[in-house]
Amino acid sequence: MTPPKRPIDERLLKPYDPAATEARIYEKWEQGGYFAPSGDGPIFSLLMPPTNANGSLHAGHGLVMAIEDLMTRFARMRGFKTLWLPGLDHAGFETQVVYEKKLEQEGRSRFALAPKELYQEILDFTLANSANIKTQIKSLGASCDWSRLKFTLDDDVVETVYETFKKLADDDLLYRGARLVNWCPKHQTSFSDLEIKDEERVDPLYYLKYGPFTIATARPETKFGDKYVVMHPNDPRYQDYTHGQKIELEWLNGPITATVIKDEAIDQSFGSGVMTITPWHDATDFEIAERHGLDQEQIIDERGMLLPIALEFAGQPIKKARPLIVEKLTQKGLVVKVDEKYTHTVRTCYKCGAVIEPQIKQQWFIKMKPLAQAALTKIRAGEITYLPEQYQKITEHWLENILDWNISRQIVWGIPIPAKLCEQCGQGIVDLGNTVTKCGQCGGAVRPDPDTFDTWFSSSQWPVVTKIFYPTTVLDTAGDIIFFWVARMIMMSVYLTGQVPFKTVYIHGMVLDGRGQKMSKSKGNVINPLDLTKKYGTDALRMGLIVGATPGTAIALSDDKIKSYKHFANKIWNAARFVLENASDSPLPASHPYLVALEELTQTVTAEMMNYRYYLAAEKLYHYFWHSFADKIIEAAKQDASLLPFLPVILERCLILLHPFMPFVTEEIWSIFKPDAAPLIITRWPI
After folding, report:
1. Which of 274, 438, 441, 496 is the most buried (most CB within 10 A)?
2. Where does 171-177+362-456 sit in CATH, by number?
3. pLDDT per residue over 491-515, tens digit each?
4. DSSP code at position 634
């Protein structure tokens, strides 16, 4: 005999509607204060990688929010005093580039604006975008503690960054010097080596007659000032030449006196084994000049234009001048031959693609080797676990070969460098209190440093500036910023606190389109996660992002995949309706295969999640609910009323286990199923 159906909440009489549900539930969570740390359990803390406050969220952000919210909800339900701290990043150069494009569309240029005016415009732009991004993050179900929201231009953040700058100076780990830097002629700023994109290109290689030698170059436009010819001291071909020897020869602008330099940096197998150097415009050449105290002369200006040393080519851009310079060399009989298919690496700006024009500039640098060594000691001691583990070796290799970090940027948008520059001797003076009125070294007049910090310098202190729940439990991030951000956070945190900033580094993969291609605006395949949530619901998007998301491995995201998890949300909803309509309060046996399987599922899912295998936990929950519970157990209960008492028990457990993955549909069903109980978001995990 089939028992009569029970009265049911009218919400379950309609199909599940994410659009009518999610905002209401999120507001309930937020007003209930459930996102704030509570209780006296062990601490779980997680810092949201500060989202660039210069646009909208993309599919990669969707994956970040899904994974980190899953981590947070799981810890909270297990009784941890849980904090997921949200953050927004002013993003320095990245944001200024976005705003420059806006200015270009309006027919304006940043160079025509006063610095304060440009700063205010970008600030207004950023704050408007920040409000929008915060709303978008909430729409993805992020249960972060908004009362602690940090922005990388907050006063306390700036204060911490300034204190670190001063400490580096006091500890002799900071210096201002004239060194070769990576310079973008379009954006008019320097970069660190990490912000350079190396491209393989095929260009002509010109073999030129330089007195008795043949030199090879792909950049004849830099050769106007070349007056040093360098060879390896052990090269048998040039044993008759001595270091410092003078040679008279005909060159681009007429007769010159060249000096022979012997240096072991020369590659004897390249070309003739002899090269001339342009220290102002090449890193290897600069190091050779520094070692031997050689002159350094600028040939190309900051805009990529040739200077007066180029005579008739002065004021011309490189692209226009190069063939004309080659023609002049040819007319003078200085071109020996040309290899038209020379494959080499060209350094370009990672944002605009402009060829980087190295320049010698006075900049602030951090001595990185001591910081890197301290970080390596901690990493090798096992104080940080990397998932996948190969990222530990990648990090160690970079730290072992680290270069000094140029933290000066010639942009308006960012944290100003608190220093004064002496106009007479060029010394840089750290000046946190803005009290320095003259140079302590020469007594000369000083002026404020016009530069700002590299945004990664402030971001490297992100775990420290939050000032609470340190060190954090886990860092979730993308592999492409392992050096930009992760390694630098480890170095700066160990330097400032003596502790590593996080115990685990979880590297999520890149989100690709449905065909497995990288998303880009030029391809027209960029997926907006909010478009998908409007179409299929947030829970469906989250499951679509988690299932298959092995740490460090790219995942393909398509409409069909998200649509399938929309069907899953509907399946959960319809199964819940049947269970609540047909629930039975009859006692259960002490043991039954259904209950054994449920406990095994709980144990397995918990173990997978504790080991950061969320993709496996999600897949197992999906298959159990759909294929075991809905397809078999519920169908069997329709034929055998004695099985009905199992249904509420299984449904309750499934809602709890699914909640970190699909928080909205599970919370909505829970409020119907357990109207007098605490919300599902703070319900204890069964283990």
Report:
1. 274
2. 2.170.220.10
3. 999 999 999 999 999 999 888 877 7
4. I
